[in-house]
Amino acid sequence: MFELPTDLPLPTEVPTTVPTDVPTTILPTITDITTLLPSVPTPPLPRAADGSGQRAEGDISMVQVAPASVEERTLLEAIPGSTTHRRVTTEVVGRLTDPTKPAATFFGGEASLKMVGAPTLSAYSDGGTNGSQVTWTPPQMALTVDGQDYAVPPAGEALALPYSQNQDVVLTLSAGKPTTGESVTGTQAQAVVTTLNVVIKKGDVVVLDAELFPMSVKAIAPQGGVDCTPPPVVTPVSPKLKVTGKDNGPKPDRITINAQPKAAGAKATVFTTVKKKQRKLVAGVVNDRGDRVFKIKDRNGKKPTKYVVKLGATTLTTSAKASKRVR
Predict the structure, then answer these.
(1) How far apart are the first and last CA of the chain?
(2) How confident is the model over 284-294, as pLDDT tens digits?
(3) CATH number of 242-326
(4) How is the chain split into domains, by residue range?
């Protein structure tokens, strides 16, 4: 039987959600990454001097850690007082693959660890003076032994339990505390944390020293924050389309299109009317000066031909239409 401390506080209300300092006004996610946490290899429990401490059927595992992963996302968030710049926030959340099962078991299952709430490590940088910060929201953890829950104390304290089959073997659990780095210029914030430290000793000999559910985070922003100034709103203007033509006699008619340079890249299409139906003759893109020359076979002899030019819109200019009669 474990020798359990009697003065440790028991968890009362177990929250179903994890508090976070991430503002509600969040721009779309930049990155979203899920990484499986490494498993913890552990040797079997050491035997007592009389050979006890093991089950008859074989070795007993000191620690069995449940599969888990960390989800990382990086966001651009509003900086209070700024309408054009954003801070960089990176958030890492730890999750058990199966949250209905214990996060870890000890001494062959005699003790199990409950973890309620997702451990969350976040950092933000806004590029301003003292504009970087790290926030750590640990989960609630409790060790269950013989149906009784014992709260894992906060960082700086420890919970020690001897193994029932070998009193020389002692398990010590302690919650982790993040090691942080926050630049005074507000351009970088980073942190590493181990959610739970596990130490198993036999006497004075450390048999196992493991860090369960390690997490790290980093947020980097340029001086002044990320510039998210929206591009200026451009109102398209008229391309000032002009069409001229020249009769080359039996040679092809020459149709010249002139527009202002802002219409560069616009598609120009030349039509004519045949038997009251519009007929497309030729199309092409105007050059950097907004000009284009088409040579069109004269199919009307000495009779005049009306050429209609339609110029497509661009981001800077509207669509336009003009015509010219050529003999």
Answers:
(1) 111
(2) 999 999 999 99
(3) 2.60.40.730
(4) 31-227, 242-326
